[in-house]
Design a protein that fits this description.
The structure is a homodimer of 594-residue chains. Chain A is α+β, with helices and mostly antiparallel strands. Among the domains of chain A are: 8-63 and 76-154, Orthogonal Bundle (Butyryl-Coa Dehydrogenase, subunit A, domain 1), CATH 1.10.540; 158-284, Butyryl-CoA Dehydrogenase, subunit A, domain 2; 458-583. Chain A has 19 helices and twelve strands. In chain A, the strands form three sheets. In chain A, strands 3, 4, 5, 6, 7, 10, 11 and 12 form an eight-stranded mixed β-sheet that branches. In chain A, a hairpin with a 2-residue loop joins strand 1 and strand 2 (70-72). Chains A and B meet through helix 1, helix 8, helix 9, helix 10 and helix 11 of A and helix 1, helix 8, helix 9, helix 10 and helix 11 of B.
Chain lengths: 594, 594
Amino acid sequence: MAEYTAPLKDMSFALKLAGMDDVAALPGYEEASEDLVHAVLEEAGKFAHGVLSPLNWEGDQHGAVLENGVVRTAPGWKDAYKQFAEGGWNGVPFDPEYAGQGLPWTLATACNEMWQSANMSFGLCPMLNQGACEVISHYGTEEQKRTYLEKMVSGEWTGTMNLTEPAAGSDLSQVRTKALRNDDGTYKIIGQKIYITYGDHDMTDNIVHLVLARTPDAPEGVKGISLFIVPKYTVTADGSVGERNDVRCVSLEHKLGIHASPTAVMAYGDDGGATGYLVGEENRGLEYMFMMMNNARLNVGLQGVSIAERAYQKALGYAQERVQSKPVGFKGDKVPTIIAHADVRRMLLTMKAYTEATRALAYYAMAQFDVAERHAEPEVRKAAAERVALLTPVVKAWSTDIGVEVASLGVQVHGGLGFVEETGAAQYYRDARIAPIYEGTNGIQANDLVFRKVARDKGAAAASCIAEMRETVKTAEGDLAYMGEALAEGIDSLQKATDALVGADPVTVAAAAYPYLRLFGTVAGAWMMVKAAVASAKAKAAGEGDPTFHSAKLATARFYITNLLPQHSGHLAAVTAGAGPVMDVTEDEFAVDL
Amino acid sequence: MAEYTAPLKDMSFALKLAGMDDVAALPGYEEASEDLVHAVLEEAGKFAHGVLSPLNWEGDQHGAVLENGVVRTAPGWKDAYKQFAEGGWNGVPFDPEYAGQGLPWTLATACNEMWQSANMSFGLCPMLNQGACEVISHYGTEEQKRTYLEKMVSGEWTGTMNLTEPAAGSDLSQVRTKALRNDDGTYKIIGQKIYITYGDHDMTDNIVHLVLARTPDAPEGVKGISLFIVPKYTVTADGSVGERNDVRCVSLEHKLGIHASPTAVMAYGDDGGATGYLVGEENRGLEYMFMMMNNARLNVGLQGVSIAERAYQKALGYAQERVQSKPVGFKGDKVPTIIAHADVRRMLLTMKAYTEATRALAYYAMAQFDVAERHAEPEVRKAAAERVALLTPVVKAWSTDIGVEVASLGVQVHGGLGFVEETGAAQYYRDARIAPIYEGTNGIQANDLVFRKVARDKGAAAASCIAEMRETVKTAEGDLAYMGEALAEGIDSLQKATDALVGADPVTVAAAAYPYLRLFGTVAGAWMMVKAAVASAKAKAAGEGDPTFHSAKLATARFYITNLLPQHSGHLAAVTAGAGPVMDVTEDEFAVDL
């Protein structure tokens, strides 16, 4: 099976486009020079290609297995994880004070993309660990950082996020896991958590669970949830692994995809209570989680990019090998491979254009995150924070839906062979399907976008983003003028849709949420592609860089603008259709034939 | 797991809309009264619900297995097949002279939809058998009909279609299986066939393979392929099962979905040659196959409808049960189920509207097929044949792509549970994925549409269909006038796209093929929905039928028209973008980062 190759040229280009130079100028990130960025990407690419990618298919077939109460990861997993930790890859964006590399999140994002492309099931472990590290970094005590964070950043231990319960999925206000205060300041944690990614595994000596639970006197709802560190093994005074805590994996889910990523049902306190350590203050757990969740949502959006890239590479490889039928208009003797067929090209270009557009947008959002965290000017930080908040649901939902659609096209390019599991394309189609669901379903992302990010500030953040998009229109001149014009039309649609939402009644806004998000993604993707085309045209004219790369970028941008962007009008129509078509249907009408 | 319920009200309605009354007036179909149609649908629905549906999930998990050279179907399969055959379900559309029921294809189509909805893996066996029966019905000798057809129609034996070889997939001109003439008029068949659905199984005493092969002196290419009957066991003079023929299943594919449908690699002639019997004349095999293939393509299109219906039922059931978060604007005490959430409604309505639109179009196309076969007037037959030829690639490709998209939405409605296999929604997502691939990939369907069905007659067949669509616009009056206006805009897009293709150079046509097909489906679906809305409004006003059904139909049509139809403009833009964006990309540019 063909292994994943990190698309280093496009990644470097997308980083630059996202403002990597500005990020490298932020206080504390001075080390992140162009040379260092390049070296990191190259090393990460080698690791993804040589270590993670070769385990992907076998991991899918083998899966993670629960045996006698212990989760065994797929063959090769443990060793790969050891190498991953030794390479320092867990620590890229974290504080050097606690074993981190102190590099920008933007750069970490490019690395993360590679792990998820090469092996999404594997990549989930560091992804969740990263979220847990972020929470402890921000809200943990110095002692907690020394005890847990350092070992999680170094990769000696891994972290998990325990939010969901059977009755508390999208609605975390329903969390029922109990936290009873002990006299020594610790808590007894009792309850069941589901869908816990890498809730148990055999790759490290310890696992640090972050668990949402309620103290007995906590208020109802979201304001009564606290956050606890619950290690699999308690930690002794000297920092080593101590006694087994009262937490165990009771079963693993049998899933459509990401088979090698154990998705655990976790039982806390079956023997009286697992020992938990409060993070921050009581009743503020959800607030802490949400801080981390924004970043996690960008990372899940990135998984959409990753799986799209992988599916594209696979489909391209097949299209370059397979010979079948003469293409229309072909006159020669030697029948070319199917990449010469117009419809195969249409599929490949759709895959390529969406992959590059979602990548550019995800990197851009993460660069804004770095700016929001570190810029010297409060005004600049605020604007960047607003931008990243606006784009987070778009990156999460648009990219992951695109991931599914691109993976589906990847199957199609292979014809009958695409449906045969050994080919590998089907795995991407299965794996991709989780990303629109977890870390807040895409419907929830759409609601987040329209209510919290657009309606709440009366469209101000959207207007600022739209204004910046219009600046890009002006830069598309000469041969690229048609791109600017098409982008302007897309922006007009986005503007109209935004105007329609601001001030509308909440039910109307809710009904329009998903098409609005899709419209936003489609236009923001075009914005990125036009920016890219302008940069590539300039570089090409100046004789800078790889001319084939730049002409490829111009070709992909062209396809996006002429063949994909025009969908904006359909999405706008759905946004402005109002609540009626969605809400004026009775339950009896839905079920009239059942 | 919730079982499938045949949507009898919508099926009856769609049959009527498709012109079932006219079909029942065709010579030979007089028996197909409204009462009989109703009785057949009711019985088929019971069988699908009670016998086929309960086997679907276990069949998926168990799969078909090759053991010691014999394929064993999943538990319960053999008995279900016996009941299916005894019920006469194989024979619905076939000649009573050969064990058939002599009923219209249109009615058989509604039954077929049920088999595929209830259990797609099971339904494939009768679907392929039906194709084989059609071929022998048309081109077999009287003796072949008595020997094979009768038992295939009765269900005592099953039939298979053996077209594909490793180097001959989409391009059947590459068929290399050999047929050597014996002195007694039979042939020795030697070669390998792949992707043979139910190529072997344990449900019947014999299997009748229809095999494409080449005689030694046959011309190269498509005009040198002959068609043979190759029974698994040769048949004795008295019609009973004789000796084992030299054909066997050498392996089964490990597939993404339809696990319980054995997809076989078949070896012919490993011991010197399988005995084959020529169908019709030598070198005309592909022509015979194509005759059957049109019908088979409609049936595969129908599978898209079937899986969409099943996915909808499943998602609706979950949405009516699951409680999670208060919907926007909800003020009451008891939090309703998630069907009250706007975005869940959007997903369910998208599923419902597409299911009903694709169903209506598939039934309509099949009714035109019946008219084309049986109408007394040659002119009417010709027009109907032209219409069914035009719509066949649309029904096949549009419905099956919709099937995948609807199944994906079905997973999404379930949230995390959708990704857990035991829920069942994931199976539809996996099963659905084959339909855009087999029986001519959707890319091939798109080429068939633009070249053979539109460009070849200079748009005449399309123009005739468009003219009829415009008649429907006129009938949308009063409250429904907005639907007529929106449909008219869609038709204008289709008209412009058609004009752009007629007379264009072939490469431009090929590049526009898929978006044109998608545009055609979107507009034809709207045509059907507006027809349906007009009929329902009339019936409601007249107090006829179930008022909830009619108001549901009006609601679904409204959603289709306001929220889905507007995509036509995006598709039109892709059609008129020309060949450049697709063709002006070098292979180096595709692979610039690999």
